[in-house]
Protein: Beta-galactosidase
Amino acid sequence: MKRTLGVCYYPEHWPQEDWAQDAARMAAAGITWVRIGEFAWSRLEPQAGAFDFGWLDLAIETLAQAGLKIVLGTPSATPPRWMLDRFPDMLALDAAGQPRKFGSRRHYCHSHAGYRQAAAQMATVLGKRYGRDPRIAAWQIDNEYGCHDTVLSYSDAARHAFRDWLAQHYQSVGALNRAWGNVFWSMEYDSFDQIDLPNLTVTQANPAHEMAFRRFASDQVVGWNAAQVGALRPLTDAPLIHNYMGRVLEFDHFAVARDLDIASWDSYPIGFLSDRLEGDAAHKARYLQQGDPDMQAFHHDLYRAMNKGRWWVMEQQPGPVNWAPYNPAPLPGMVRLWSWEAFAHGAEVVSYFRWRQAPFAQEQMHAGLMRPDDQPAAGLAEATAVAEELRQMPDVAHVQAPVALVFDYASDWAWKVLPQGADFDYFRLVFDAYKALRRQGLSVDILPPDATGDDLVGYKAVFAPGLATLSAPLLAALATTQIPCLIGPRSNLMTSELSTALPLGPNLPDLDIAVARVESLPPATMRPVAGGGAVLHWVETLEGSAPAVITGEAGAKLLVTNGTLHYLAGWPDTALWDRLVDLICANIARSRLPDGLRLRDTATHRFAFNYAPEAQDWNGQTIPAAGVAWWPLSADSRTG
Amino acid sequence: MKRTLGVCYYPEHWPQEDWAQDAARMAAAGITWVRIGEFAWSRLEPQAGAFDFGWLDLAIETLAQAGLKIVLGTPSATPPRWMLDRFPDMLALDAAGQPRKFGSRRHYCHSHAGYRQAAAQMATVLGKRYGRDPRIAAWQIDNEYGCHDTVLSYSDAARHAFRDWLAQHYQSVGALNRAWGNVFWSMEYDSFDQIDLPNLTVTQANPAHEMAFRRFASDQVVGWNAAQVGALRPLTDAPLIHNYMGRVLEFDHFAVARDLDIASWDSYPIGFLSDRLEGDAAHKARYLQQGDPDMQAFHHDLYRAMNKGRWWVMEQQPGPVNWAPYNPAPLPGMVRLWSWEAFAHGAEVVSYFRWRQAPFAQEQMHAGLMRPDDQPAAGLAEATAVAEELRQMPDVAHVQAPVALVFDYASDWAWKVLPQGADFDYFRLVFDAYKALRRQGLSVDILPPDATGDDLVGYKAVFAPGLATLSAPLLAALATTQIPCLIGPRSNLMTSELSTALPLGPNLPDLDIAVARVESLPPATMRPVAGGGAVLHWVETLEGSAPAVITGEAGAKLLVTNGTLHYLAGWPDTALWDRLVDLICANIARSRLPDGLRLRDTATHRFAFNYAPEAQDWNGQTIPAAGVAWWPLSADSRTG
Amino acid sequence: MKRTLGVCYYPEHWPQEDWAQDAARMAAAGITWVRIGEFAWSRLEPQAGAFDFGWLDLAIETLAQAGLKIVLGTPSATPPRWMLDRFPDMLALDAAGQPRKFGSRRHYCHSHAGYRQAAAQMATVLGKRYGRDPRIAAWQIDNEYGCHDTVLSYSDAARHAFRDWLAQHYQSVGALNRAWGNVFWSMEYDSFDQIDLPNLTVTQANPAHEMAFRRFASDQVVGWNAAQVGALRPLTDAPLIHNYMGRVLEFDHFAVARDLDIASWDSYPIGFLSDRLEGDAAHKARYLQQGDPDMQAFHHDLYRAMNKGRWWVMEQQPGPVNWAPYNPAPLPGMVRLWSWEAFAHGAEVVSYFRWRQAPFAQEQMHAGLMRPDDQPAAGLAEATAVAEELRQMPDVAHVQAPVALVFDYASDWAWKVLPQGADFDYFRLVFDAYKALRRQGLSVDILPPDATGDDLVGYKAVFAPGLATLSAPLLAALATTQIPCLIGPRSNLMTSELSTALPLGPNLPDLDIAVARVESLPPATMRPVAGGGAVLHWVETLEGSAPAVITGEAGAKLLVTNGTLHYLAGWPDTALWDRLVDLICANIARSRLPDGLRLRDTATHRFAFNYAPEAQDWNGQTIPAAGVAWWPLSADSRTG
Ligand SMILES: [Zn+2]
Ligand SMILES: [Zn+2]
Ligand SMILES: [Zn+2]
Structure:
């Protein structure tokens, strides 16, 4: 498939007389796609029921005339002020019970039926007008679900919807009491109407209560999205897309994706390094102007898993952003590097955010491809270079990676609800595994938690760390697979109700092992491992007959195996992760990469991305800081 | 007295068919006592007024049949959900004005008259049914007062009760205005009904206002407890007990204890080290799996002071807990060590929490003596060993310690309200003194703040650091005693209304000294002391004729004395504390102990407890890490 | 002008029989002024409408009899409790929506019309009674505007007043929508009544919205003050004064000052170092008992700029305070040093807070000149020495400083609203510049942001760092001045509506330069500068033809100039600030001072103040720690 570039554009921010020139310049830069409309509700429907599509018609016409394909957004992330007059109770409440007021964006509760209906109605109106318009080549629904912590709402609407959800799931309040173990502190309910949201309790709420609320909240996002999908589907054949964010984990993206056609995400490498990644000061200083070397790749691989490989970068950082604690500029070359990295991981489109930096409002310090004074910003030349390179490049053809990594949103919720140790974070654990694989040059595919035996076919290794509860399909697959698999730590120790599995987990097929006890450890405490490395944060005491491959210094079993399946009883440090990759991926060609260099294989090429701030030598080539290189790949040289 | 073991058990969590086996196993392990019922209200009274005692009758019968003695708890810490329908305003409010909702435990305001009455009524119902039942050998009232910050409530009920309390204490609002100095910022009131709770003021509230609220809140706990005592006393002769917590200081435990027969507390050494003790990272790492070497002993000594020496450990940590930021396992041996340490300090009973780890709800990660899969957990063997050792051991007979240490809850409130320096904490100061005494092998008795001359008889040294206001009895005792006493710093400088004492304190008998000025210091600032050591956090400028025993480097008086009474004008560092113990305890045999080793003398034996993670040599014996040793004690070898 | 001393006194706190002796002692100590009344509303009007002036009459008479001149305060900072019965909605709300309750002080919202009226009425009552009384030589209006974060209120009164303010400023809601760029996220309003205060939004509110709220809130303070000025002006000829605080920036002090006659401020050097200044631990430890060596001088210079040079220190710290996290005592000599420093900077009066330490209520740990037991505190002797020295000293005559520094409250609001980097703080930037000037012995005058060409006459250098928007008068002045000026970083890049300036700023006269891009940097990231020093926190990319005087290591322009005007494109470290002072102040005699020593020139003398904790040699003289020295100044020896 031929890869293309896009850009996000807000015609409503600029004089109409500038649109044609903007469109021409986009086209000249080699841009194919333009996303519009997703924040424009107050211009599309200035008063309730009074629509104004004239400007949008003109914008579409102008952009299409320049040869651009349009992604049209539904504007439900920014309901206009009059919507609040209609639905004064549509706002979310935070966990402290405060309303999250109008004045920015995402000021709605997913559980509010009235606003949900109004948003779907808006999608219908747009669908009727533009659904069969060939210039509208794709749709974006809403914008960045979960951004600004907007999944969990404690509003009246949420409370009532939660009670309905519980009634449907448990059928009887007695069943709920039993499932949650409400006898524990006399927390038993007589009716669903007595059940409140799990905020503001005197001490921690029942984890089962919180877990149910997490599942409910995720379902509310799915249902919210589905309402608009339901409105648009009959009206258009263009693909439906949502633009997810980085490390937003409060809803199940796989579940949302089931209703959509293409996944996309918004990639802000430098902001993300600063505001949502662990890492010591040296790491953050080293990658200050590049972003973490694995964060983008991880999300590329994650979102590639959503819709049978169809995915985009809907928003690509093109320069300094405005919303992180500190906002440095990308190193020269990084915009190109990020773009090519996305393509190497299979993106169909990389779309820059935004065309021109706005001179007003919240994001006026967020760079675009153009400066607010209509001069080219630094990113434009790099984007243009990518467009030119794309023209030279043969199609980027995807190929299955040698390693599969399982990712499960519900496990994140489980460990947030019941961390047991302040540093136990699911994403961090999975990301540590991902980084370990990538340090050895391996390409990775991400699988959903209900991956089946069929889904595992073709992989040479499977990693599934930290799964709170293993799904039935995955358990079945593990029972028969011959692929080396790593499970653990803290895997399958809980039921889906977040109670303790009995018999004690992990209850893996043909692996006689049980976790007799767990310990969480403060950051400075390491438990050394025989042969090198250490565990930290978390360590389990195993009992059972499965033989140990790796043990603690005192001989305690740390990694056990039945030959294929491996269970890991602690949180590895970097050195131990390296040993684990060596062990599980022994049958895959690997090589330890220079610090900051990363590889990615397509069907035909190997790409190298140098995230380091200095040049790195690789494969006989010197790759400059922020540089990209690629080589044709013969079958025998493929490593990961 | 013969010491015994107990365990906490929740028959309502388990199938009835398992109870008999559980009871048999408890007995087999050497357990004497079993505590039940304290969270079971929703099973005892599933609907308002509809009681169900069948299961409890059966549980009592089953446990008693196995030879176990029962502690029956009143369930008022966990009112069932229907109680909120009856009293929607029974919830506490936090200082920010948020309700502290149903969904965990302790969801009530001590000032709510309706729920107080309902809880007392439940005690009456239980007392009528079981008060004369010989199988019920003791009662526990409520559970862990003050846990989860539940003493201070800002509810309407609290506001109204506070006004009544003020009216009773001050009789006229004019008297209150004068006592508080409300003229200061035109804070004068015209009536008690104008007085609000001291939260959410623009800047700090009048400290006298806050101190009155603290006294009131403590009295509300006393009154709450007394209501149930009043219900049970006519109905039973079994002793009434409450289980206090560690470092919960918001109410006066001495005052609660006056209505009870036995004090008990819940000892979680590893959790407490992590979540409620000062200490640098090295200290916390060293004792990660043992707990602070003095925290348990301090509370043993404190609660021994409550009811003429009658005290228990009602809940003893038996393995990893769930509620601290990090939850490692105890070193092998620690469960035994903690148990023996309690006995050496005079405990009648050590009761483990809990029999079997629950597989659901909030505490499912909290270890028991049994695992959730009904297999023995690590703690069981150690408990069983203690039971066996108890059988071998002659009675543990208490003896008066050589050193008395005064502890006063109101001083904690005073310095919380008016810290003057961010690091001035009363408990920390007293605990530093306690640690210094224990580093030299001294056994300590704790005395209440109104200790009399009679109470001091027999001690060789008295320490009373940081008393906001000295009580009349203690002042009278100090006027005549010949025992070396250490008073200060910041002692008797304030009135009980938290205004400045005039003449300037400490106003000690026969000690011509006044604190002319105080300074608080940031952590990095030390003021060296002539001869070794330093003061930190706090230093006073003394004037008056009392001679100095220790001075600052520039000659300022730091420790002054009249020969018997010593006043200390600063917060000592460790080296200075050691000097002070040498000085005040010069007439007591002492010896500097290895790091982590602690001694405790009974009437007949000296016990040594090795909290260190390595073996320590002592008295010609090598005591392993987490080890206990004891020797018969001849009168001349007794040191502390 | 002859300089004099004053003191703050609260006769209502003490028995009437003590007043005469207090007054006599004040006079004996050389004190000229006494401030009274500013917190005494509950005694002046114990019940609504029932006044009691008897005690105040007597206090005035007693003080005046001793020869003291009286500053009478209006008591509006402490409305009595009955005022809340009258205006239950007069309280401010914090940003979380919580009321800021009665029980301390400043418990009112500046926007509450009813209380504003009541406060003005009280001023009228006082003015009628005492306005022509010759013993009342000055008035203080209210107390410490903005203290305890009391400028920004989110009450209903504030919301309604904000809407009115917006309506008056923008006239039409369409104009507001355009000015704020509300199209950005469909934030457009249909009427002013839809506009809420900018708190509790889901993510950041529109910076234009927040900036308007900031301007409004400042105007409310101005209007509040003006209401009392309006009440008093017709009734008295005595000067009207307000006592500002240190680093309180939420309202425009220049605007308040326009209605007053004399500026004053409350100088607490040690508290301010601890609770409101940046600085590493070594700096804070070194100056723990002296205060920052530039903080007082900066505010002296700032408040001297308010009312044509007429200013006082209304409250001078005389010993340890009570309100900082840690409260050490001043080094001996510091009370004298602070006093003389104020006079050297032009203060007419230095008034100590307070005469006698109160033995009750919030500030009972705050030292006075007298102890609570009526003995002299350490500060009294130093104050008395200053009084004696003043008698010996010729008049302190002010002279224009060689350097002007522009200070703009609105720039602080702008960068608080839109920091772009977590460490970008306007005050910190300006204060860094001020410190750099003072390190070289320069005296500084502060100018308002709308300084004109006339205002610049006589200066040899002008520093104007960090101005969000340059005023028209200042821009005009810069266009013609021949004085070396330093502008930048981040200067004139925004409009007054906090939108991006177009063409891109700084748009300075005859300086072809534009800021093409900005970057904010985390604390550990430094960008070295060719020739020495570095930039941190903030760096801009310049384009344009103006030649560079200083460049980054890679050659990027950092300081550009047209010969007179210099634009600085980054936040300098200390070494770079020194270079900048060398460059801009090349024509002024300077000398690098020992660490902690500071100079200040009057018309006739050079003063040296040694803030260091050790003696420093200067001008052939050894100045002890906390010492002051002065020399007659000949015109040719004047440096700064
Ligand atoms: Zn976005
Ligand atoms: Zn407990
Ligand atoms: Zn003040």
In short: Chain B touches chain C through 49 residues (CB under 8 Å).
